[in-house]
Amino acid sequence: SEDIVWDYDQIPSQYFNNERCLALSKLNLQFLTTHDYLLRNFKLFHLESTYEIRQDLEDAITRMNPQFDNEKKFSGFQSWSKMAVTLTHFEIQNVKAPNLGEKIPAAVVAEVGFTTSGMKSGLKLEWDSLREHDVVFLVSFEGGRDEDSDHFPAQLGIKHVRGCEVTKMFDEDRKEYDSAEISGKSSAQGYKRTFHLELDPAQYKLDADAAGEDSDAYGTFHMLVRRKAKENNFKSVLDTIRNLINSKTVIPDFLEDIFLGYGDPASASYTNIDQEGLEIDLKDTFINEEHFKSSFTSNEAIPEKIRSLPSPEYLKQEKELGDNEHLRNFWSSKRNRIEFTPTQVSGIVSGTHHGLSVIVGPPGTGKTDVAVQIVSLLYHNFPEQRTLLVTHSNHALNDLFTKISNLDIDPRYLLRLGMGEKDLDTDQDFSKNGRVNFMLSRRMFLLHEVLTLAHSLGVTTHKEYTCESANIFFKFHVQSRWDTFLDALSRIEESPETAKSLASIFPFKKYFVTSSQYSNVWNGDEEKLFTQKDRSFDMDLAEKYWAKIQAIFTELEECYAFELLRSFKERGNYLITKQAKIIAMTCTHAALKRKELVELGFGYDNIVMEESAQILEVETFIPLLLQKPKDDISRLKRVV
C-alpha cells in the first residue's frame, strides 16, 4: 500500500544522507540458525523490492502527470507513460468467504478495463505480453496536489496504491487470450482490454475494517502500472524464502558451520574432507605427457597422494593411436584443447573432489573453462550423478552451456531451463520441449540403427522395431554373437601374428561400414577398423566398438519412458527428474521454480555457480535447497 511504499523511516529516499539509522534487520557475519539467516534476508529483500517498486511508481506517475479540477477531484492525465495506462473502469467482482478458522477473505477478484488505442505496435505488444501471475499496481488520485509538501503522494495527489496479480486477460470480443511473450505475436483482437486481477485479501480486510475512518479504498482506481518482467519477480522470490523459513532446511555437513559463520573455512576444502574410495580419472584435462608432468605431477598445490597417480588412460590411448587418421577421427572427435596452467589444474582437481571449491580470478583468466572441465569430468567419472549449473545472468549461463555442449558430453543429458535458452549459440534446442523432441527423434534414429545392425547380421525377423523389441533383439542376437566372439578369441593363442584373426572373426564389421553414423569414417572398408598388427590394442578397439553398440541399446532403454509417456508435460517432468544429468538455470529461475522442482522430486549431487560474486547472498543459498533431503541428510557432494 501507499503507507509501506512511502515509509521513509524504513525505506530511505534517494536523498538519504546517512545522518540517522534506519530500522532495518542487519545481515551479520554470524547467524544462530539458517532460520535466522533466512528471516533477516526476507525482511531485507522485502524492503529492497519495495524501494525498486517505489522508483517505478514515481517514474510512471510523474510521466502521466495527474490533473485535478477546482474542487480537487481527479480530472485526467496530461501526458503518458510506457509503463502505465488510464483505466476505463474498475469493479470488485468477487469476494470469497474466509476459509474455516480465518478472518480474511479466501480471494478478492477485481475487473479492470483499458484501451491500447493510440499505442504504437511495439508498446501494444508489451501490454499484450503480460502473463498470468504478473504483479501490477493500481493507483487512485484525490485531494489535489500540494507542491510544497515533502511527501511524494501529497505532491501528486496520490490517494491509494494497491498491488495485485493478473489472473485472466480478455480482448475486445471478450475472448480470453494468451500472453504474446513466447510467440512474439498477440492473438488479442481490437483495442479494448479487460483484466481480472487478484487483490491481496489481507490488505482488503484492513481496508474494510478502516472504512469507517476513511473513504472506501476500492471505490475506483484511475491508473494501472506494470513493471519490466526481469525486475518483477520479487513476489515469487519472497514466497520461496517464506517457504524455506517454514520448512526444515538441510545443507551439507561440510558447509553448514562455515555458512553460519563458525569454524575454519578451510575445513570445507577437499584436502580436509575424507575422500576414501574416490578415484578421479582426469581424462583429457592434459594435452600430452609433458603437460601432465608440468601441471600435475610437479604441482605442489595438489596433495602428494593425488599427484602420485599414474597418467590418465586417455594419454596412453592418444599415443597408441599414433598417426592413424581414421582411428583418431573416430575416437578423438571431441576433446579438451586447452592447455591448463598448474593453478587451473589445481582448481579442476579441487572441483572434482567432495567439498567446497572457490575459484577466484580477474576476467579472462579461464574461470569458465575450468568450470566446464570440472562439469565434463564429473559427467564421465560419475555417470549416475547429476550436476546443477547456476549463474547470475542468461548471457553467462549460455556461454557456459555452449562450451559444455562442445565437449564429449552426450546432448541427451543436457537441459537448459528458463527463458534465455533461445539465445544459445548452438544449433540444438536445449529447452525442456526441445529435449523432449530430441529424445523422440533420437528414438526413431536409434531404432533405424537397430534395423541396420539386424540386416548386417542377417536377421530379418522385423521390418521395424520398438524400444521393447529392440531389447529382445539385443539379448538374443547381439549379445550372443559377442559372447561367441570372446569364446573363439580365447582359443586362439595370443601373439602379434594373431591380430589378423581377431579382425576376421569380429562379428560387427559390416555394421560399422554400413551404418550412416560411420560410413564417412571408414568409406566402406572393413580393413580400416583394426590395425591388424597389435592384438592387445586391437582387442581394446574391439571392446570400444562393442561399447558403441551397447550404447545404442542403453540409450533406447532411456527412450522407453518417452515411448510410454504420452503428454509433453509428463515427458518434460521425466526429463527434469530422471533423464538429464547436467541441468542449467539462472539463480532467479531457481528461486521462482523451487516449489515446483521440489514437488517433482528434482535431485542433484553437484552444483557449479558461475558469477557467484554478482549474486545476492540469499540467491546463492536457494539453489542449494532445490531438493528434498533424505533422512535429514543432503545429497549434495560438491559446491564449486
Could you name the ranges where pLDDT drops below 50 across 5 or more consecutive residues? none
Distance, first to last CA: 41 Å
Largest sheet: 7 strands, antiparallel
The radius of gyration is 31 Å
Number of helices: 23
Mean pLDDT over all positions = 83
Q: What's the count of strands? A: 15
Q: Order of strands side by side in the largest beta sheet?
A: 3-9-6-7-8-5-4
Helical fraction:
40-55%
Summing up helix and strand content along with how strands pair, one would put the structural category as alpha/beta
Question: What is the overall shape?
Answer: elongated
Proportion in β-strands: 5-15%
SSE topology:
Layout: H1 2-5, H2 34-64, E1 66-68, E2 74-77, E3 84-86, E4 89-95, E5 108-115, H3 121-128, E6 135-141, H4 152-156, E7 158-170, E8 192-199, H5 201-209, E9 223-225, H6 234-245, H7 253-259, H8 289-297, H9 304-307, H10 313-321, H11 325-331, H12 342-352, E10 355-356, H13 367-381, E11 387-391, H14 394-405, E12 414-416, H15 432-456, H16 467-490, H17 499-505, H18 509-514, H19 519-522, H20 535-564, H21 568-579, E13 582-586, H22 587-600, E14 606-609, H23 617-621, E15 638-639
Helix pairs in contact: 2-6, 6-22, 12-13, 13-14, 15-16, 15-20, 15-21, 16-20, 17-20
Describe what this molecule looks like in 3D.
The protein is of the alpha/beta class. Helix content is 42%, strand content 12%. The protein contains 23 helices and 15 strands. Strands 3-9-6-7-8-5-4 form a seven-stranded antiparallel β-sheet. Strands 10-15-14-11-13-12 form a six-stranded parallel β-sheet. A two-stranded antiparallel ribbon has the order 1-2. Strand 14, helix 23 and strand 15 form a beta-alpha-beta unit. The chain starts with a helix and ends with a strand. The model has no long low-confidence stretch (mean pLDDT 83).
